[in-house]
């Protein structure tokens, strides 16, 4: 690199020396092994079709990970301005790597593509900024973008607890270069994550009781519990300007980690680099679930076909066109899978044209497009942070990715979950784009979570989660400056969930559920306005939550509807 640091890089080249081939680069924080001698990886490229078509595949350990030199910084901020010839960030490391490759790897054709999933999707996005001229195509897939604002770390102020704790248990700080970063296998002493995290108490106890004081990345995650300078500096979205390479953004509707990052990356490039060839592909997949998998189903839900195969041809044709000069396949702006109907659709924009319609909460658990007629009406429940609503039907120590489509009947009898459901639909109803809950609430506490779930109720009774998100009440006015809720005062909680493209079929019902905990998917809100990670046991208190459903204080969920009279 320009500052003298060396990054460990492995090159796999076709044996054919009579032809020049393009380079397909992946920069990763997860290791480029196998490192031993002439050991060979299980596969090269995004799919076997890439190896058959022949590319020069390059894998690189990013700075400070595995066999690369230098210091690793978790979600290294992109610098607005480089201060000198040896100043570095992930954009310069990508630039310097590409510059070295095109000058030193034999038989390359001078064109480079960049691809990566999740963290490696973040590195792909970074490489598109101030891009090397040889970088002509990039595919950030399930890319992290803004970790506090809806990606891996926080959703609307609530920490995604089980995902982050289990991830950092296997992602330690290392003294490099090493082919295998040192880590101690964490012993949960139980198979029940609900029980484990409940006994752990406040999140800060993880340092007191376990070995996480050795992992600064975990500590940074939970101690920066509002949208402060730490998180803002790591938001890559404002830097996605003047993007020169063609871009193929890939993601899954059921990505429990970086659904927000995928959609926001596509949107940021559209708005800030309007001249860039930029395509979105969204399938019915979990996080990275399209790689080396068929994509036929997730959990109990079948998609009717091996959906990942559809992506493989799009992906290969994209890189063949820009790296090898193959004919342009004429990709649409958005290629998206309509869940529920189980069909692929193409649009020249995303979201497509829609009309906003509101589903209002009504008495006796009804959900309707009609505004409530009652005055001063509400439903209420008692939320107990010491008996939180479970997020998963079965015990688990890691985030079960299929929770994104899981049957919600396992919480149907809990008194701290409110249910509102429509009559059976008389025709198909397709929601396309973001979902916006707007609740009027009050609480006896000084902070509370309000979790909203949009559910497709099948005729056989299966309650399929379509989209669900938490919202931490103290952030209702600002994610930078939390404010206590005022006990007994009616407040508005309005937020936006990530997009869906889902068809509620004729004969199905639409359900909305409201609750105030979702554990251990998210950390527990003590329901006292305090520094949540360091809350004391006595600050975890019961609170009476009211959800208003009256004409003068209506609660609703706004959908963007593609087709419904």
Task: Give a short synopsis of this structure.
This protein has 565 residues and is of the alpha+beta class.
Can you describe what's shown?
The chain is an alpha+beta fold. The protein folds into two domains: 9-146 and 234-347, 3-Layer(aba) Sandwich (Rossmann fold), CATH 3.40.50.1820; 355-563, Galactose-binding domain-like (Jelly Rolls). The chain contains ten helices and 25 strands. Strands 1-3-2-4-5-8-9-12-13 form a nine-stranded mixed β-sheet, sandwiched between helices. The longest helix has 18 residues, at 307-324. It is globular and about 80 Å long.
CATH class of the largest domain: Alpha Beta
Q: Going by CATH, what is the homologous superfamily of the largest domain?
A: Alpha/Beta hydrolase fold, catalytic domain
CATH topology tier name of the largest domain: Rossmann fold
What summary fits the major beta sheet?
Answer: 9 strands, mixed
- Poorly predicted runs are none
Which structural class do you get from the secondary structure elements?
alpha+beta
Strand content: 25-35%
């Amino acid at each position: 690199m320009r500052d003298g640091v060396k990054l460990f890089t492995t090159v796999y080249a076709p044996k054919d020396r009579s032809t020049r081939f393009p380079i397909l680069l992946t920069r990763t924080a997860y290791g480029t092994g196998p490192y031993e001698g002439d050991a060979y990886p299980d596969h090269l490229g995004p799919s076997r079709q890439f190896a058959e078509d022949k590319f020069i595949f390059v894998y690189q350990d990013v700075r400070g990970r595995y066999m690369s030199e230098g210091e690793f910084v978790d979600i290294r901020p992109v610098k607005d301005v480089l201060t000198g010839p040896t100043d570095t960030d992930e954009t310069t490391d990508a630039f310097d790597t590409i510059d070295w490759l095109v000058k030193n790897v034999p038989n390359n054709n001078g064109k480079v593509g960049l691809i990566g999933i999740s963290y490696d999707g973040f590195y792909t996005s970074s490489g598109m900024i101030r891009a090397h001229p040889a970088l002509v195509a990039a595919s950030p897939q399930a890319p992290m973008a803004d970790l506090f604002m809806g990606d891996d770390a926080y959703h609307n102020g609530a920490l995604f607890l089980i995902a982050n704790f289990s991830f950092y248990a296997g992602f330690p700080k290392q003294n490099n270069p090493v082919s295998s970063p040192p880590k101690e296998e964490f012993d949960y002493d139980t198979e029940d994550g609900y029980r484990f995290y409940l006994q752990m108490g406040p999140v800060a106890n993880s340092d007191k009781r376990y070995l996480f004081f050795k992992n600064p990345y975990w500590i940074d995650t939970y101690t920066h519990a509002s949208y402060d300078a730490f998180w803002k500096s790591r938001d890559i979205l404002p830097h996605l300007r003047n993007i020169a390479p063609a871009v193929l953004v890939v993601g899954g509707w059921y990505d429990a980690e970086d659904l927000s990052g995928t959609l926001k990356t596509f949107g940021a490039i559209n708005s800030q680099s309007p001249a860039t060839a930029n395509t979105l592909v969204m399938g019915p997949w979990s996080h990275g679930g399209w790689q080396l998998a068929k994509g036929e189903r997730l959990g109990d839900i079948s998609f009717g076909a091996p959906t990942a195969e559809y992506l493989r041809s799009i992906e290969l044709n994209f890189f063949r066109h820009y790296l090898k000069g193959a004919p342009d396949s004429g990709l649409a702006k958005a290629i998206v899978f309509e869940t529920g109907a189980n069909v692929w659709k193409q649009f020249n924009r995303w979201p497509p044209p829609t009309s906003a319609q509101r589903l209002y909460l009504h008495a006796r658990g009804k959900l309707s497009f009609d505004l409530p007629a009652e005055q001063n009406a509400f439903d209420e429940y008692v939320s107990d942070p010491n008996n939180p609503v479970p997020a998963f039907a079965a015990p688990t120590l890691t985030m079960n990715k299929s929770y994104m489509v899981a049957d919600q009947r396992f919480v149907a009898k809990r008194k701290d979950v409110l249910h509102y459901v429509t009559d059976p639909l008389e025709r198909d109803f397709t929601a396309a784009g973001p979902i916006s809950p707007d609740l009027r609430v009050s609480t006896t506490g000084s902070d509370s979570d309000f979790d909203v779930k949009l559910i497709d109720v099948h005729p056989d009774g299966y309650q399929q989660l379509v989209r669900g998100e938490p919202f931490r009440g103290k952030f209702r006015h600002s994610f930078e400056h939390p404010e206590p809720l005022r006990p007994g005062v009616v407040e508005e909680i309005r937020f936006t969930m990530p997009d869906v493209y889902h068809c509620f079929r004729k004969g199905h019902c639409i359900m909305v559920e409201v609750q105030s905990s979702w554990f251990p998917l998210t950390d527990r809100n003590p329901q006292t306005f305090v520094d949540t990670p360091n809350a004391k046991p006595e600050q975890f208190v019961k609170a009476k939550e009211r959800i208003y459903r009256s004409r003068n204080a209506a609660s609703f969920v706004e959908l963007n509807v593609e087709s419904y009279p």
